[in-house]
Amino acid sequence: MHMADALLAPGVAAVMIAASGTAAGLSIRDLRRDDAAAKLPTMAVTAALVFAGQMINYTIPGTGSSGHLCGGMLLSALLGPQAGFLSMIVVLVTQCLFFADGGLLALGANIWNMAFYGCFVGYYLIWRPIMRSRLFSGLGDRGGSRARIALASILGCVITLRLGALSVVIETTASGITELPFGAFAEIMLPIHLAIGLVEGLITTAVLLFVHETRPELLMDAGDAQAGASRWTLRSTLVTLAVVAALVGGVLSLAASGNPDGLEWSIFGNADGGYSANMGLDEEAYGVSSAAADAAEAIQEKTAFLPDYAFADSESPAGTTVSGLLGSAIVAALAVALCALGGFFRRRRKA
Amino acid sequence: MEELAAQDSPVHRLHPLAKLLVAVGYILAVMSFPKYALTGLFAMLLYPLALFQLSGIRVSTCFYKLRVILPLVCAVGVANPFLDRAVALRVGTVAVPGGVISMLTLMLKGVLALMASFLLVATTRMDSLCASLRRLRVPGVLVTLLLLTYRYVGVLVDEVSAMSQAYALRAPGQRGLHISAWGSFLGQLLLRSMDRAQELYSAMLLRGFHDHFHYVAIPPFRRDSAVYMATSAAFIALARGVDLPRLLGGLFVR
Fold it and tell me: Which chain B residues have a beta carbon less than 8 Å from that of A91?
């Protein structure tokens, strides 16, 4: 899930850094209002714990494989979305700097894909509505809140991870890195992350249930089922769940669609409407005649941050290719010489 | 990692802000290469290699870290040779499709970006890196959080591995953590750590901690850092603008 720098074009990386930076700035502003300094040590230690928790091997019963922890949902359930988001940023920065897990300039994208969805979408659309609802109230006080925690964590992990995986696909496709069509790439990424999300959800559930048993006051919204019930009725929960379901459905249908080019176009070119008019037409048709498609193409041209693909195939390659190969060989020789020189001086300094 | 950063070399002595900015500029330049520009990108290799040699850190130390990032990069790039079959160049009688070139470019980009960020962290101490982040006006809350987390990570990773070992010794022949312990294993550690962190924070407050750390004085921005930044910028611009290997080869082949 962590993206390397190589997978992004500079323009895409910059957009993602701007988006994540804005979210971080707003979170810091919100935290300042309610005395962030006192929360700092808890935030730091839970961030470090999520980091260390990634090393634990959870055996999945019945299979030989193992899973890991989903940080975003755990942190926002314990600290709230803003503090959770900042802690998650710190986890990702530490992973990037010390474990080369994700690139330095890809941090913006990684923060968005993992921290933003996990904390904000996971908390506001999934955790809080479910925890404040009267769902499972037939199971009694304890059973009800346990069931709500389980439902919220599993649903949260699955959905936020799918959103993250979808973003990876969008960002990579927008960077013009892969030849894989959007739909095919999504079909590879999304099922894998559905399985991972389920396992992560179960692990997160286990940890949160333990915290709920021993120290229920640490969990956000866990005690307010009664207090919040007046505002969060069954209907509002159902509405939120419908939104979530629509999101998931959209993701699923993207993966299942057999018209990847149309999908690609729908992402890049539907800004000014005309989307439905062009759905279902094949590439030639919408590329040539439709006025809406022309407008879309113009927008696409303007917003294209893809590197220019021009490849010097026309100016007969024989000469330039040979010089390119020879030049590369010279550079390689230089590189080897450089390393040998460095090694020589290192040895001399030691002696 | 901390041991590497605590060593001394001309590269270690450079101003952390200069190193940070150059690393970001270098990675940006690497990312911006078009997808078939394999030869041009290849010249960028010289730059981190030279710095590795100057700093006295072996290049091989950073390569074991590649195992983490390469899988996704490979997964994305590996389809290119099959989908992009237009012949880009011929070596003798073998036709090389464009997809192979773009796949190799992608992987090289991954390696180069990793080398640059590894070099930054391996030659810069965490506190001076954080101090230069503060200078770039990164909010204090975030930087303090980063420093605190960095301190806690070491402690907690040790604790988790001790706990895992203890668990493994009591559960012989079992791979990983059984489902019955999923919650309590990490949950126990979580609760204990949160309590301890709160005590630690009270102790910090009693000793006069207020909102942010005072960083060790980072060395002033000396002439060598300015020279370093100028040289790096010149090399990066040259290698990005001109296809150096092709130019070099052109000297010998017409």
Answer: 149
